[in-house]
Each structure stands twice: as C-alpha cells, then as structure tokens.
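Chapter review: from sequence to fold.
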Amino acid sequence: MKKFLFVFLVLAIASMLFAAQFQLTILHTSDLHGNIFPINYATNQPYYVGLGKVSTILKNTLAENPATIILDTGDLIQGTPLEYYHAKIDNTPADPMVLVMNHMGYKATVIGNHEFNYGMNVLEKAISEADFPFLSANIVKKGTDEPFFKPYILFNVVSGDDIITVAYLGLTTKYIPNWEEPKHIEMLDFLDPVEVAKKYVPMLNDVADVVIVGYHGGLERDPETGEPTEELTGENQGYQLLKEVPGIDVLLTGHQHRTIATIVDEVVISQPSNWGKVVNRIDLTLELKDGKWVISDKNISSISSKTVDADPEVLALVQDYEDKVQEWLDQPVGLATGDFYIDDPMIARLADNPLIEFINRVQMDASGAPISSAALFNNDIKGWKAGPVTLRDINAVYIYPNTLKVIRVTGADIKAALERSAEYFSVVDGEVTVTKSWVDPKPRHYNYDMWEGIDYKIAVNKPVGERIIELKFNGKPIDPDAEYEIVLNNYRAGGGGGYTMFQGKPVVREVMLEVSEIIADYIMEHETISPTVDGNWAVGVGDIYQIKWNDTLRKIAEDYGITVKELIQMNPFLKNVDRIDAGTQLMIFKPFVPELVH
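The token string follows.
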C-alpha cells in the first residue's frame, strides 16, 4: 500500500512537472500617430519613435519566442507630415502605416479617435488596404446596434504541436462626438464601451483560451489631483471596464499617451506611451487542464525604443513616401522679418508672444471673427526665426488637423473659458508652476488657450474660478449677458479639453481648411510677415480692491507693496479723478513677465 501511494505521488508530481504548457507573448503598441521613421519632423533630427524601432523589437522577441503576436490600440493614420501628405496631397498609394504594419504581421488594431480626422473616405481606404482588421464593437451604424467596423477577431497561435485560440475585442472612447467634425461621423453612433463589453466578453470566453480587450481610451484620473480613481467615467473608462466586466485576461489601453504596465485584480493592464517610444510586452503561461488551456502565470514589462536601432527593411518599404514628404516640407512659403520663436514655453504662456498672437490673427483674418483663441500644443513647439518660413516650420507649430469654427457665445462663456485656462497654473512656495494634473501623466498643454481681440489678466494667487480680474472688449468690460463671435478650432468648439461652455453653441460659420493650410496660405499671400505683440493679456498675481471711505492711494499702494505711480498705471482712470468715492474698485496686478504687458 505504501509502495502504491509512493508511485501515485511520483506520477502526480511528474504530471505536474511535465504538464503541457504554452508560452504566449503579446507585444502592444498604441497611439503611433503616423510615426515610422525615427525622426522628429520639426527638427529633422533623430528621435526614438516609429514603427522602424518597433519592428526591431518585434524581430528580437520572435527570435526568443516564435509564439509572439503584435496588437495595436489605435490612432494610426494621423499625426505626422508623412500621414498628412498621404491623406491630403497624394492619397493614391497604400497608406504607409498600413503598408508597414502588413509587413510586420500585426494581428489587429482598434479604431482611435484620430482615425476620423481626414474623413471616412481616407479611413475606409486604409482599412481596405490592411491585412489586419480595424476593430471597434461600440461604434455602430447610426440608429442601430450594428457595429460599423469589425467588433472582434478570433485567431489561433501555434507553438509546436499546441494551438491556443485568442480573442481580441476592440472598443473606442465614446467621446469622439465631442471632438470630431460632425460630417466625418454623421453615419455613426458611439455606444458606451463598458455596456458593449458586457455583451461580448462572456461570449468570447466561451470560445477563446485568452480574451484580450483593446480599448482606445485610458484609465480614469481625478481632474484635480491627477491620481487614479475608479469613480469617474467618460472619455476614459479603463477602471470601469476592469471592475464591471469579468472575464478579461488582458486590457490593452491607449489614448492617454501614458506608460502603464501592471496587473490589477489578476488582469494585465497595458498602455505603451505613444509614437512607438515604448512597446509593452506581456508574457502569458497557459497550462492544459482537463482539456482546456488555463492561464497560470502573467507578466508585463516595457521596452524602450531607445534600446534598439530602426529596422532598415521597414524604412526601405516607405522611403519613397518619406523622400516626397521631406522635399515638400522644405518648400519656403514666405519670409519672416523677425523672430516668431518660443525660447521658453512657460514664459510664452505667462504673457503675450509673437507666435501665438500671429496664429490668432491669422484665424481672425480667415474667419472674420473679432476674437480668437489658440494654444501652444506642447513644449517642443518652437516656431521660426527671421528668414524663410517653410511648410516644415508651419506643420511643426500647428500639429493637429483642426479646422476653424466661429461660434456665438456670451460674455459669461468667455469668462468661464478663461477661468478654465487659468487652472493651468498653480503657485507653489511663491513660484508659479504648471498644475500637476495638467502635466501628470499626460501633458495637456494643448488645453491652455491664449486669446486675441480681448484684454484680460489672470491672477493665479486667486482661487480657481476667480482668477480673471480684468476682461475687456474694445476697451470696455465684457458684458456677461451680451453675445460675441469667437473663432477657435473645431476640437475646442465642441467642448474638447473640458471647455463645456462651448458645447452646443450656435455655429456662425466654418472654415473647413486645416489651420496649418490657412497659415501657409496667409504667409504666401502676404509674402512677408512681421512679429507683433500687443500685450493684451498677462498672467501674474493680483486682486480687486474696493476703496473704503478713509483710504488713500499711498496707503493702498503700501499695503500691496507697490508705488502710487504703479497703482495709477494699473488703473489709468485715477489720473483724471480728484476724489475717489468709497466703493470704487481698483485692480492690483503684478505680471510675471512685465516687459511684455501694455
């Protein structure tokens, strides 16, 4: 009996040690945004981005484990001059991103919000050229529950004599109608991705050994602290998917341009930054138990594209595309008589500057609107210096394919929008800085707008929501109830970036050219452009003081640590007043960059 038990134990241990195992490796990319070559198109200098780098990582991984698949989570066909040129100048050949991804053997991607930027014709052409599907289960034909795109894919992965079945479900952020041109999505509805996942995931679990959800959206974060939260839903619903949809083995996310590589509640969560800077690697060990493959171990790691060289075979595939784009980008369109250049992006956001003023004035000229807003989209944007201005310069400044809308808003709406922008700043230990939630994890510099056509001052020492201490139009205070026409890009006009005060406002007219084209046309028409700064806005510290019956200007100035002369400069009406009545309001304001303020 003891001998039998010993033999049984040995056999049991042996069966455990030699149980059939399957090692599956998943490589994940997202938000590639048209990057293939390892360059920065604004500077034409080397940069650790692009599918060329990703291809090398893929080849290295396949050499280690042939049972490797590569998946993507969207925003493929917009974002670089390469894709702009293909979409707008010469859309005849195959989409370069699709061409390369076909070569690399991608299994699938997910429809991202930027896929619609060039219209459905460009998107559907790219889809037709792909050997892999563009997935989204929650984008449906308008007025129905029928998916417009393929909702999921089932495929087998082979290792030796073993085969497993993998399911990949695509989901897309439902917020696209808040950003996209209505004509680009007029035939679509966007359902809640969580509710749609609840329908598909149980079904896929019945037929697949591994269920992967690809969500072009991210994980919810508190808008004030930037910290993860499970309570907020909307643009990003990753945590909600994790908590409310059982049966997901791997959750691939995107959209936020973050690097996430973790396991939460036994679900692998991945987000591999953007532009191919990072590739996330997920390793799953499966064991065959009672005739079914079961995941027994999960690991995830991030691979930086800094660690590899670009695959020359991939670059050669699309070198003809690149040569045409480079020639196109270096075409001069006009001459700048002075610098439209950003030395310090923080200073550029603290006071009026030539580059943003120029963009706003071009928008006003093209639209006829008397008031305009624009943003410095990221800290890499520099503008151009005196001399020839090329298409490369312009495309490096206005990096999104936005068009313009003129909308009718109230003075209260303008004030609310300025207060939203003013949230960008915080004062820490007496120093102005960028509010943490605007830069962590994904820098949202593109959500801070600077305006032309109005005069305003932002006092960052005041509480959020009370920071606009001066707001004038044509020299007079803006009337909260009056209506004004403003021009801004289509993303912002739809309420993008938290500017909900603009949602649903009457559209007076639209300029359907992309802003980069509008800028190029303006420069070509004028031939020469000169930098101007009218100092109509500034950021600083300040207050609104209401005069008491026994106040003197000297006393008020001393209380605020300024001179009487400075106080009068801040409030020019004081020059002509013999007596100041109690209740009169004075503006006290010290700009952080005083030399640029009128």
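Two observations follow directly from the output. The chain has a mean pLDDT of 92. Residues 2-17 form the longest helix (16 residues).
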